[in-house]
Specification:
Layout (H helix, E strand, L loop, with lengths): L1 H6 L12 H14 L1 E9 L5 E12 L5 E9 L1 H22 L2 H4 L1 H4 L2 H18 L5 E6 L4 E4 L1 H6 L23 H14 L3 E9 L5 E12 L5 E10 L1 H9 L1 H7 L24
InterPro entries: PAS, PAS-assoc_C, PAS-like_dom_sf, PAS_4, PAS_fold_3
Protein name: PAC domain-containing protein
Pfam families: PAS_3 (PF08447), PAS_4 (PF08448)
Length: about 280
């Protein structure tokens, strides 16, 4: 209300104490990377809090001063529904843990069923190790739990199992953007939100630049808690360069006017300003 606005001059005064640090990081990242999204709580009357989704887009004013355009959306109803669903899942999990039939389900399975599960797992491992993508998975501390053959090979390992318990500091596949990559992976696990089809330009161990399409997916335990992250990298350099060489084809396929920067040094496209809904 107006009286609260008059008595509080800092945005952080309105935030829930548990969310203030994340909002500060959101603002810093929005200034740094140009955009961002976060969820947080605002404290109102009688210490009652409401959930909001905030999106930010960096822009420059007439004086060339960096500023952020923010849009907030009330998501209290959605968060309350999520909370009720989580409580229900916990209750069902606790109930399941008390039932011997579920707790000792393996004792009730036939040898044929267990063999089928083992064969399925072996087949999945064969598939992962024979696709061209680089695949790895880590725990919440970014310690490697496994990878496929291609990722092991690019890091000079003969066996994918050799990567278990290692960290990024022990590897050599990417060095120039390591801090940025780790920050992205931390954000996916912290927000519990997957990232798909992210395009990044990286330097490979042999010093060459390559375009990768990246997917980052949080991993969960049986209770729905985030316990790690699965990441895939696909080299799309050939597709990327063919797009840059054929800008006319792109313009014909897009309804909204787009300004393309296709200079040999830019390696980027310039799109119209983002809009939020």
């Amino acid at each position: 209300n107006i009286k609260e606005l008059e008595s509080k001059t800092d945005l952080i005064d309105f935030l829930h104490p548990e969310d203030s640090k994340r909002v500060v990081e959101f603002v810093e990242n929005a200034f740094k990377f140009g955009y961002g999204k976060e969820e947080f709580r605002i404290i109102g009357d009688n210490n009652h809090s409401k959930w909001y989704e905030i999106k930010g887009k960096r822009f420059f004013d007439d004086d060339n001063t960096r500023k952020i355009f923010l849009i907030c959306r009330d998501i209290t109803r959605i968060k309350n529904m999520e909370n009720e669903i989580n409580k229900s899942q916990i209750r069902y999990t606790q109930l399941a843990d008390t039932l011997p039939e579920i707790k000792y389900w393996k004792l009730l399975q036939s040898k044929k069923s267990i063999t089928a599960i083992q064969k399925t797992r072996e087949m999945l491992e064969v598939v992962i190790n024979n696709i061209p993508q680089l695949i790895y998975w880590k725990d919440r501390k970014l310690v490697y739990l496994g990878c496929n053959t291609n990722f092991a090979t690019i890091n000079g390992m003969v066996n994918p199992h050799s990567i278990i318990s290692r960290t990024d500091d022990d590897l050599k596949w990417v060095i120039d953007k390591l801090d940025y990559i780790q920050e992205c992976e931390h954000n996916v696990m912290r927000k519990d939100e997957s990232e798909y089809n992210v395009i990044e330009l990286l330097v490979t161990p042999d010093g060459k630049q390559a375009w990768y399409e990246i997917n980052r997916i949080p991993l969960h335990d049986m209770g729905g808690n985030v316990v790690g992250i699965l990441v895939t990298y696909e080299d799309i350099s050939i597709r990327k360069f063919s797009v840059i060489e054929s800008p006319i084809a792109i313009i014909c396929e897009i309804d909204t006017p787009v300004l393309l920067d296709i200079s040999s040094t830019a390696n980027s496209f310039l799109f119209p300003p983002l809009t939020f809904t």
